[in-house]
Amino acid sequence: MDIKNKSAGFEYFIEDKYDAGMILTGTEVKALRDGSASFNDSYCLLDKGALYIKGLHISPYKFGSYANHNPLRERKLLLNKKELLKIAQKIKEKGFTIIPLRIYFNENGYAKIQIGLGKGKKVHDKRDAIKQRESDREIKRYLK
Fold first, then answer.
1. What is the per-residue pLDDT for 19?
2. Which of 10, 36, 51, 94 is deepest in the core (most CB within 10 A)?
3. Selection from 93, 94, 91 nearest residue 47 by Cα
């Protein structure tokens, strides 16, 4: 199961990508396996040497009991210290931000999140991306 942040590639130029683990509860993992998560308004935050994701909405597990999780809770991301230091240095530069790109399960069954360091696109860059996408569609249509 792959859950992708579709607007990330449209809104940002992604420069570096990192795979991080997440600290989750049991019902969150089950809800992710069902594919019920949303990246709307989610962002990553570096706080006291630790990386957190805020605003990631993981819907409550439909078969959960009273111990179901809070859908918008802040979740800690797990990265190596070297990777955290690289990210911290890049964030200090102007215009860089940490964007969650996708959530997936690796071959061992652990939930992972792919994050990217990106710079925001300007309006004209977004227009160029739309033009490119439309021209690619037309080319594919003619080739069929």
1. 92
2. 51
3. 91
Domain covering 3-7+14-120: architecture: Beta Barrel (2.40)
* pTM, entire model: 0.79
First to last CA, the chain: 30
Instruction: List, in sequence order, the alpha helices (H) in the chain.
Output: 8-11, 26-33, 81-92, 123-143
CA distances from 1 to 46, 103, 116, 132 (A): 27, 8, 20, 29
- Residue numbers of the chain with a pLDDT score lower than 50: none
Length of the chain: 144
- For 29, other C-beta atoms within 10 Å of its C-beta total 17
Residue 55 and residue 68: Cα distance in Å, rounded?
A: 17
Q: Where are the domains of the chain?
A: 3-7+14-120
